[in-house]
Amino acid sequence: MQARKNRILAELSAHLPSGKRAWIIGSVFSISLFGVVAATATAPDASPPFALETVVEPLQLSPVAPGADSALPYIYDERVQPGDTLQSIFRRLNIDDPEAFAFFTGDELGKQAIRYLRSGRAVTAMVQADGRLLSLSLPTSRGAGRITLERDGERLAVRDGMAEAPEVVVEMRSGTIQHSLYGATDAIGLPDSIANKLAELFGTEINFHTDLRRGDSFSVVYETLYQEGSPVRTGKVLAAEFVNQGRRHAVVLFRAPDGGENYYTADGRSLRQAFLRSPLEFSRVTSGFGRRMHPIHKNWRTHAGVDFAAPTGTPVKATSDGTVSFVGNQRGYGNIIILQHRDRYSTAYAHLNGFARGLKRGDRVNQGDVIGFVGMTGWATGPHLHYEVRINNVAQDPMRIALPKAQPLNAQELTVFRTQTQPLVERLALLNRIEVSALR
């Protein structure tokens, strides 16, 4: 049928004068083209005249296996896992090479490489089909040092040098709360370090112990450091947003002209001097503020703080910048740290198992610094943290008190802030499919 149409058109053109022939052919082509354009333009608005159905058909693939005599090596790009040993790494990389194993257990450079194995660091190997090692590259320190073992014929040679500088890649994730923050971050593959930072950043606005609801959502833009194509560790959180009970909270990282870095809300309000609601990343409240039956003395007493249950050794963080006014033991409190903050505020952290190394009276601490560790010293029936917020040395309910806020940027600083953070705000808007102006 197509051939017949072409022949009819060709015969028609043969009987036309040369001038009209070109005009008519051009007109036919133009009309056809306009028809295609019109159809393309209206297709999205038209409903298809048939029912749509998804059909999944399995494809039969013929297995492909390398020949037994293949001399091509296998290349492995792995990361060191928690608890890895040289044996487990060799097994995972399918290395069966006693000579190479003996090098790492007997040579000083090899021993150094094993000592500095760190979870998350990249390991690259080239292995023959019979398990014989051709090359293996391992990190030798937390920095850029690497040691590479290479086989040159029948001899093993060592090359000790610097690895490629890590590449910083900006990644974006978003998730929805179903049961807990950790459950939601695990579901989208967000590293725990970034999840912890989210809790810290939004701890001034959201009480993660009581305020989370199913359907709350979050988005985060953060750095991941890659080395030789493999992620080695996470970097900084550049921007984040949390929608809690319909209320939107957004923060961005601002790099000031003097080189200082700080987190601000989208309208330029600093989070640095604000108070965190909780000195622990995640835990549960076991005893609130107010009158209660004392678990040891068995009589009604005023409980001047909030108790957070957590395993012994859990890090305790300063909820705001301040100065250590007391560190030591106080009878029922056991091991306690008291921090003095601005505007007549102070905080107390009691029943600690121990203090941060070198912490002493008069030391300055920043919000988020680890100052001690959960324990059960003093009057305690189990490991937990007793936390108090005081104004003029009078205890207040840490979960209900209106905590002070930091001063926002001035007009000139705010202009620089908006210019610098606009790309980050746009990334958050992209994740949430909202107008950028809604974040301002």
From TrEMBL:
InterPro entries given in the database record: Cell_wall_metabolism_enzyme (IPR050570), Dup_hybrid_motif (IPR011055), M23ase_b-sheet_dom (IPR016047)
Gene Ontology MF terms in the entry: metal ion binding; metalloendopeptidase activity
Keywords (A to Z) from UniProt: Hydrolase, Membrane, Metal-binding, Metalloprotease, Protease, Transmembrane, Transmembrane helix, Zinc
Domain M23ase beta-sheet core stretches: 302-398
Obligatory cofactor(s): Zn(2+)
Segments traversing the membrane: 21-41
Gene Ontology BP, a term: proteolysis
Name under which the protein is recorded: Peptidase M23
